[in-house]
Write a structure and sequence with these properties.
This protein is of the alpha/beta class and about 150 residues long. The chain contains 6 helices and 5 strands, in the order βαβαβαβαβαα. The chain is globular and about 45 Å long. The structure holds D-ribose.
């Protein structure tokens, strides 16, 4: 799978770990920046990754900033992007299986490398559940995108 990656300065060091993790799991990281510790606006990188995922240029995305919160709020403004901040294995799996998340958001200042590795592995392995109740709920979320 192609996995689009993006970060701001607060998530830059974590993104370097994420590149290693994605690669070691047999996937292809597509690094959309930022590429150093200079302060940038997380919104710009959230949009790059969300658009890559929604367009099909990448299968899934992973965003890192200081907390993962700004990235998730911004990415979710792109229709078709479902970004979830999840920093441990169970939440990351549920985000994908139940909620159909296609972007995982993680904080570079709020978690640790082992939890992140497990969360990424869970996110990239899980599939959206085909169970009717979960599909129905995801459909209701998608329907919200057409509203002003
Ligand atoms: C940048 O200092 C910080 O606000 C950003 O990385 C992120 O945590 C926002 O949600």
């Amino acid at each position: 799978m192609k996995v689009a990656l993006g970060c701001d300065h607060g998530g830059y060091l974590l993104k370097q770990d994420v590149i290693d993790t994605v690669t070691s799991l047999g996937h292809e990281p597509v690094d959309l920046g930022t590429c150093d510790l200079e302060p940038v606006d997380y919104v710009d990188f959230a949009v790059k990754v969300a658009e890559a995922v929604v367009s099909g240029a990448a299968d899934l995305g992973i965003l890192t900033c200081g907390t993962g919160i700004g990235m998730s709020i911004a990415a979710n403004k792109v229709p078709g992007a479902y970004a979830a901040r999840a920093e441990e294995c169970y939440s990351a799996r549920m985000a994908r299986e139940h909620n159909g998340a296609n972007i995982l958001c993680i904080g570079g200042r709020t978690t640790g490398p082992e939890l992140v590795r497990e969360a990424i592995a869970a996110f990239l392995t899980a599939q959206p559940s085909a169970e009717e109740r979960h599909a129905r709920r995801r459909g209701k979320i998608k329907a919200l995108e057409g509203r002003d």
